[in-house]
Amino acid sequence: ADFDAKKKRKVAEIYRALNSDPIDVAALRRMAISEGGLLTDEIRCKVWPKLLSVNTDDLPPLPGKELREDNKDYQQVLLDVRRSLRRFPPGMPDDQREGLQEELIDIILHVLKRNPQLHYYQGYHDIVVTFLLVVGDRLATALVEKLSTHHLRDFMDPTMDNTKHILNYLMPIIDQVNPEVHDFMQSAEVGTIFALSWLITWFGHVLSDFRHVVRLYDFFLACHPLMPIYFAAVIVLHRQQEVLECECDMASVHHLLSQIPQDLPYESLISKAGDLFVQFPPSELAKEAAQQQAERTAASTFKDFELASVQQRPDTVLRQRFRERPRGEERLRGEERTKSILTKPRTNRFVKLAVMGLTVALGAAALAVVKSALEWAPKFELQIFP
């Protein structure tokens, strides 16, 4: 009864925000982030366009089949969509699923045709199919186009340099909360490639329950484009005991982390990711992330992405620090630092939130959607990915 009452109150608050003049987008963001997210697909159809500033009264016409003619991406998109059977609800009739797959192909080709600066990547279809299943083809086309030119922009560059740069935020976030886990992963030389599919599909490719996928999409749509990497970090931190008990070698740690659990405490992790974003915003981590990128780029002569990802090396300072510090001392330091961060006075957090002009709902930070994705991300002349 209490849950139903909370749900009714939240639905009422969402519709109040939708019906206000002007629409209260800040309240909609808080609702998308707070416990339970946007609750139903019917509500998502109304709120997702507001979070992305898409005018639903002026939607583009449905894409036509002529887009498939002489399209350089068509064959790859076709292959990926044909392999996407598990992304559709189990028990869906074959003819209905096949019709949706055709719509999925058309949406992707339409966005790419209208935005020639964007490049298709494998995994993009996992994001598009989520929008298609929730809001239908015409609205999905508009939402995906806006998302592709903003939140997903860096994944759609000609090279994977910016994607790699975003992955480089993962280890600094982990280091802020649990240096022991960070140093263990550096010693194992596992790198960050295990989180690549999480990041570029917004976890759509790796989570089997569609309810969890759309809950995360509520969260990510209301937040800064880097929020998925913060969520990836809290997944690793949630599994810290498993990580530390693993064999300290690349293959073992990579295998463990790449097998994402399906029973994660999503609401708790969403709240922690929001907290970490506020405590350690990207601007504070950018220098360390850029340093990792610069060092690996300068040191690397690999041209093949897979080879580069497998043979990543921790920097010399971290490796030396891990070797020289006794294990007991390292564990104690890690516990003390974790305790310090997780037990910071709540007043400090609220002061910082007030300064940043943010609000808090049920333990998660409500973050404004940025107007352009990662314009501050440094560019490097030397590219390790062809």
Automatic annotation (TrEMBL):
The keyword Electron transport does not apply. It is found in: Membrane. GO terms for cellular component: endoplasmic reticulum membrane. Keywords: GTPase activation, Membrane, Transmembrane, Transmembrane helix. The chain crosses the membrane at residues 190-207, 219-237, 350-370. It is a multi-pass membrane protein. SUPFAM superfamilies: Ypt/Rab-GAP domain of gyp1p (SSF47923). PROSITE patterns: TBC_RABGAP. Residues 38-224 form the Rab-GAP TBC domain. It holds the Pfam family RabGAP-TBC. GO terms for biological process: endoplasmic reticulum to Golgi vesicle-mediated transport; Golgi organization; vesicle organization. One of its GO terms (molecular function) is GTPase activator activity. This is TBC1 domain family member 20. It comes from Sakesphorus luctuosus. The lineage of its organism: Eukaryota, Metazoa, Chordata, Craniata, Vertebrata. The gene is Tbc1d20.
